[in-house]
Amino acid sequence: MIHKDTNLEVYLTRHAESVANQSPHIVAGRSSESPLSEKGQQQARRLGKVLKQDAPFDAVFTSPLLRSSETCKIACEEAGVIIEAEVAKEIEEFTQGDWEGAERKDLYSGDRLTYIEAKGYLLTPPNGESQRMVERRVSNWFEDKILYNESYIGSPKKVLVFTHGLVIKCFLHYVMHFDDRFIHRVRLDNASVTKLRFTSRGWFIDYINRS
């Protein structure tokens, strides 16, 4: 049950450009150790200036993947955020399993593309996970760690989350209940911020993909 005094502001931040992002023709998937590119480091510093306008934050979380943790470190230093970020494995990028490293033109073509489109967010790549699986692990974490956290009751709280594009899109699907075919059609740029609010009246979307 949601407490009547619940008042959360949630800033979902996509990581800045990584080295893997520089090869969009390759299926990157999780790419755990892909660092920020030089451009990504600049984006993270600009992101920090943007976040500084909304600081201070009551809690900061980051995916353990390198591109997210590096974005978090640079942006928080720039924004003057002094609280330590908590690492949350539940918000790491989804894995495309055996498809990672393949060229998109070879993977998304012919009968396989028809099959992928038919399965939608229930599609599970070999040894990977579906968008539905991502949505459940992220929303379960959010409910347990933030939404029903008794320490967040009684006064407004601001929560800053550094994570990944598909993670944010799947969470938006959980919040907004739009057709799952639109998950991949939501534009989220590197180092962009999506702000949500949650009160006793439910969810509110303030903005998506602001940078």
Describe this structure in words.
This protein has 211 residues and is an alpha/beta fold. It has one domain: 3-Layer(aba) Sandwich (Rossmann fold). Helix content is 34%, strand content 18%. It has six helices and six strands, in the order E-H-E-H-E-H-H-H-E-H-E-E. It has helices spanning 38-52, 66-79, 104-107, 110-119, 131-147, 165-176, and strands spanning 7-14, 59-62, 86-87, 157-163, 193-199, 202-210. It has a six-stranded mixed beta sheet. The mean pLDDT is 93.
Attribute tags:
211 residues, alpha/beta, Rossmann fold, 6 helices, 6 strands
Spatial gap, N to C terminus? 34 Å
For CATH, the homologous superfamily is named as: Phosphoglycerate mutase-like
- Average the pLDDT over all residues and give the rounded result: 93
> What are the segments in which pLDDT stays under 50 over at least 5 consecutive residues?
none
Tally of individual domains: 1
Computed Rg: 17 Å
Please identify the structural class as seen in this structure: alpha/beta
Corresponding CATH architecture: 3-Layer(aba) Sandwich
What is the overall silhouette?
globular
CATH topology: Rossmann fold
Number of helices: 6
The major pleated sheet works out as: 6 strands, mixed
| The first-level CATH class name | Alpha Beta
SSE arrangement:
Blueprint: E1 7-14, H1 38-52, E2 59-62, H2 66-79, E3 86-87, H3 104-107, H4 110-119, H5 131-147, E4 157-163, H6 165-176, E5 193-199, E6 202-210
Helix pairs in contact: 1-2, 5-6
In short:
It is built from six helices and six strands.
